[in-house]
Automatic annotation (TrEMBL):
Top-level taxon of origin: Bacteria
Domain Carboxymuconolactone decarboxylase-like: 250-327
Name under which the protein is recorded: Carboxymuconolactone decarboxylase-like domain-containing protein
Organism: Achromobacter veterisilvae
Matches recorded under Pfam families: CMD
Lineage: Bacteria, Pseudomonadati, Pseudomonadota, Betaproteobacteria, Burkholderiales
Length: 388
């Protein structure tokens, strides 16, 4: 069993990269959600553990540099570039990751890994079964496929978390807003009755199943660590293809599940219904039918209505029954589609409709974790619809 990862708050990578220090509003808000900060760092540590088999550390760092370059996230690209140099990666391979041209890679294996990375970073819905199966064909084992998929999904989360925190920090240095109320809200009148089935543009709030495209772990032959992580992750993890596939790499799943649960279920802060709304918007934008269905249902269970879900499925850019919901949707779209464009004004727009510092952070976390979740669901398997 792997040694437990211990969180050292004084050596938190995200804090260091964007110079967050105790006493600042952004630092204090972030560390009110210490479990999320710890699991974010724990995920980084697990994914870049030199002893992790299947993919070399250099391969993982090349993926990280490539992902940070094409997203883009200059601060993370600089970090991973420095780590690659320290790890002794060849200048030629670093140049390929910098240039964004997988076909120029030094081996067919690295070319396949980087091409898969490109699809998941740029347009995750294109990472279909055929894209996934290029990896085993290039000599990447199933556990290593899990590592790679988790890595790319984590990087998608990490770049959005960093972008949002940078924007929150930037707002701290600006003069306080005058408190002007938002412009009159143009009511979206589209509505549906609670409990009604919603279907639009391939999305639905019906209950779906999900099946993996590669071999899952058999619970009867799983290691004690795998069983323990399944039991920690979700009440139905032992019968879920999703968890049974990801548990090929138990420590990575443990950290990811800890982050997810702390983000979506922690008390206080942004309402759980609004976190689910952000998750649904991100899933709609990314094209993840399965995630959208699950979190549309959770929104309705919490809010006792589904009117805004019908609007999200129809057009997320105009969805919202209130100015606050509309602002949550617009931020969720921006952080999903263009994280590098998120700035102090993006955060101020949320504050203008009443979100406080902690609520902004909770929304950022919810949106970022679905950059992670959507990529796993889209790229490792497919939804199964109810029988007609």
């Amino acid at each position: 069993m792997a040694e437990p990862i211990v969180y050292n708050v004084t050596d938190d990578l995200v804090d260091r990269l964007i110079a967050l220090a105790p006493g600042s509003k952004t630092y204090e808000a972030r560390h009110q959600r210490e479990k999320v900060a710890a699991a974010t760092q724990g995920s980084y540590d697990a994914l870049f553990d030199p002893a992790l088999p299947g993919l070399s550390l250099a391969e993982r760092l090349l993926v990280a540099l490539y992902a940070a370059r094409i997203t883009p996230s200059p601060v993370l690209a600089a970090h991973y570039r420095a780590r690659l140099t320290d790890a002794g990666a060849t200048p030629a391979d670093i140049a390929v990751a910098e240039s964004g041209k997988p076909a120029d890679a030094s081996s067919p294996r690295l070319a396949a890994i980087l091409e898969y990375t490109r699809k998941l970073i740029e347009k995750p819905v294109e990472g279909d079964e055929a894209a996934l199966k290029t990896l085993p064909a290039a000599g990447v084992s199933t556990p290593a496929v899990v590592t790679l998929s988790q890595l790319i999904a984590f990087l998608s989360y990490q770049v959005r978390l960093v972008a949002g925190l940078e924007a929150m920090k930037a707002l701290e240095t600006q003069p306080a807003a005058a408190g002007t109320p938002p412009a009159p809200f143009p009511a979206n009148t589209a509505s549906t009755a609670p409990g009604a089935v919603i279907k639009a543009h391939g999305f639905t709030n019906e209950s779906l199943e999900w099946k993996a495209w590669l071999d899952v772990v058999n619970v009867d032959t799983a290691t004690p660590e795998q069983v323990a992580v399944l039991e920690e992750s979700h009440p139905k993890a032992k019968v879920s293809d999703y968890y049974l596939f990801l548990v090929h790499q138990p420590e990575i799943l443990r950290q990811r599940s800890t982050a997810f649960n702390a983000i979506m279920y922690a008390p206080g802060g942004l309402s759980r219904a609004e976190r689910e709304l952000g998750a649904t918007v991100v899933s709609r934008v990314n094209g993840c039918v399965y995630c959208a269905s699950v979190h549309a249902q959770r929104f309705e269970q919490l809010a006792k209505r589904n009117d805004v879900i019908a609007q999200v499925f129809e057009d997320p850019a105009t969805a919202g029954t209130t100015a606050r919901e509309l602002a949550i949707g617009k931020f969720s779209i921006q952080i999903t589609e263009a994280p590098a464009a998120v700035n102090a004004d993006s955060i101020q727009a949320l504050k203008d409709v009443g979100l406080n510092e902690g609520e902004v952070l909770d929304l950022l976390h919810s949106d970022a974790i679905f950059a992670w979740a959507n990529r796993l669901m889209l790229n490792l398997g497919e939804p199964v619809f109810p029988a007609a």
